[in-house]
Amino acid sequence: MSTLSYLLCLLLGIALPVGVIYFAARRAWRQLAVADAYRVVARGLGLSVDTRGVSVHGHLDGRRLYVGEVLEGHGTDRHIEHRGIIGLSRPLGLGLLIRPRTSRRWRRRARAERVQTTDSDFDRLFEVFGDDEERINVLLDDRLLAAVTAFAHRWPDLMITDHHVRVILKRPQASPADLGALVDGMRRLADLLVERRRAVRPPKALEGLVPAWEALGEALGLEVEPWLPALVGTLDERRVQAQVRRETDGFHTEIVVTTREHRDLGLRLQPQTQPDGYWSVGQDIQVDDPAFDRGFVIKVYDPNAVRRLLGEEARALLLDLVADGVVIDMDDLRLRLRHAPLDPADVERVLRASVAAVEATGW
Predict the structure, then answer these.
(1) What is the pLDDT of residue 300?
(2) In terms of domains, do 265 and 184 share one?
(3) DSSP-assigned beta bridge partners for residue 251
């Protein structure tokens, strides 16, 4: 072997371990940078950070926000994805789905018809689905189309639905500036979607419901938003919303009752049958009530505090609501019920029962 060959082997022997150390250090530095970015942005926006530094989550202007790791797939196909998601302040009720044509990650079957927008350039980049092409095109004006295009230019794996703005990230945002820009971008899109929705008439299937909801709103002293329709205001000194939401099996009422200010417990209460999603953190807590423990998953910072919170009366009222066929989701800021009936008499009954359940917690 020549001297040059020896030298090359020596250099290679040095380069390999140095390279391994470099990439390991770079990965560790990036993980620390991501965790620091999450902490900085969370502190600035009043959000929470996962204890492992892999997500930032909470409520932003009353909308649920999550940016971080999500475990996807099953068995040997399980893998970690980095996602951002923000809920809309009102459900759109239009069967809306917008996704990039080039993305393979959002390939779920659309539950509405394909829609052609008024912008052929936009249609070359995105697939759009909705229940009513005319209403979707009123929603998607030039300003909204431009906003979606601009967002997707920076974060291309985007999906917009009636309920959320979601994005898959190639890697977690490792600087406060980048993470802040992502959150601001999702928030602006969510705000613009709801703003534009106010200009769209209710779905055809709900137009006949509006007068009855207007009468109910007047009787309860609540503001009526006829474009959904929705009722918003204060009932028995509680901030409430009742709004129509499009589900896979049709239209139902969604009810939200806001809690009063209190110590943050990190509460997440969901049905046992509901898959663990973006928002859940912590371990399931039992409250020594077999019917309640079978019905709900509870996650919270302080198990003793949540047992005091969910006393006998509160548990009984929540179980009565479930027996009525609704789906309950509760956290520190609000009690939310889905799949409630549309009939105004039923809406009032469930709305009052929901307020009573929150009142029983003391929040």
Answers:
(1) 87
(2) no
(3) 246
- Structural domain including 185 reads 48-197
What are the beta bridge partners of residue 167?
Answer: 84, 158
Edge-to-edge strands of the sheet including 268-271? 223-225, 230-235, 238-247, 250-258, 334-340, 327-331, 268-271, 296-299
HSE on the CB side for 134, CA within 13 Å? 4
Residues 163, 266, single domain; the answer is: no
Distances 118 to 91, 152, 196 between C-alpha atoms, Å: 23, 19, 16
Answer yes or no: do 165 and 242 share one domain: no
* Residue 238: both structure tokens together: 């509680």
Per-residue pLDDT of 101-137, as tens digits, reads 986 665 566 677 899 999 999 999 999 999 999 999 9
Residue pair 76/91 in contact by the 8 Å Cβ criterion: no
Q: What is the pLDDT of residues 241-268, one digit of tens each?
A: 999 999 988 999 999 999 999 988 989 9
Cα(305)–Cα(94) distance, rounded to whole angstroms? 40
Q: Check whether residue 184 and residue 294 sit in a common domain.
A: no
Q: Write down which residue in 168, 197, 226 finishes a domain.
A: 197
Identify the domain boundary among 136, 162, 197.
197
Buried b (16+ CB within 10 A) or exposed e, 307-319: bebbeeebbebbb
* Dist CA 185 CA 284 (whole Å): 33
Same domain as 136, residue 208 = no
pLDDT digits (tens, 9 = 90+) for 227-242: 999 999 999 999 999 9
